[in-house]
Amino acid sequence: xxxxxxxxxxxxxxxxxxxxxxxxxxxxxxxxxxxxxxxxxxxxxxxxxxxxxxxxxxxxxxxxxxxxxxxxxxxxxxxxxxxxxxxxxxxxxxxxxxxxxxxxxxxxxxxxxxxxxxxxxxxxxxxxxxxxxxxxxxxxxxxxxxxxxxxxxxxxxxxxxxxxxxxxxxxxxxxxxxxxxxxxxxxxxxxxxxxxxxxxxxxxxxxxxxxxxxxxxxxxxxxxxxxxxxxxxxxxxxxxxxxxxxxxxxxxxxxxxxxxxxxxxxxxxxxxxxxxxxxxxxxxxxxxxxxxxxxxxxxxxxxxxxx
Length: 307
Known about the structure:
Elements: H1 2-21, E1 25-28, E2 41-44, E3 48-50, H2 53-64, H3 76-80, H4 87-98, H5 106-111, H6 118-145, H7 156-186, H8 195-205, H9 209-215, H10 221-247, H11 252-277, H12 283-286
Helix pairs in contact: 6-7, 6-8, 6-9, 7-8, 9-10, 10-11
Membrane topology: Multi-pass membrane protein
Keywords: Membrane, Transmembrane, Transmembrane helix
InterPro entries: Yip1_dom, Yip5/YIPF1/YIPF2
């Protein structure tokens, strides 16, 4: 006790002398413990802070551990997280959609609970523009083979392709997600994917149709259908293998009907695009009659000349 009292007395004297030199200063003690001899922590109001390093580190830790407030869904920051992916992640998810295999879940192995809208958005946009461009190029190539065909640009195909693709990628997953949520109440063991995960699955499954549409420029009908069937099988298999872990907990009838409907809608999309964008229009629509145009079906009128 005597040593402690002596140490406290020396610290009091040092603090008193320091206060005499700087009247505005205030002494501080660190966490209720006695400071070592010859050292006093002083906080000067006008000049700055001469605090201990432990206090500064604790302040930094408190700032780093402060939780970030979740932005509202009406703000841009809320949707920015859905596009927060790098090139390697997008390429990995594209490879996963192109190489489906049983037991390899696309959501668990590639999305990893981080669905994005960047890949589906640009895949749908690219597919829509490629469909419209190749559909017009098909008529251009037909004109080169047959000079009697008069080509005119069909810009409305861009709108038709865009509306069709984006409605399919958003409305079908919405209906599927709603149905699985309803079945979850009936079958408690079912755990459906989130809506964004379902949209992501459908968006990446359409990537295989981009190179297929380009290959449809080859003017060989049986080869076009072969490429189309191959693309449909890969894309539909990616959907079935991804949805199977969810629907297998349901009854066999419901699972079979649901997966059959998914494949049927996918096939209707592929076949509809093939017939609409790659079937040449009739000649009367390609070359509308204008002034001075004589139809081949109309006989020429005989000219009567009086003597």
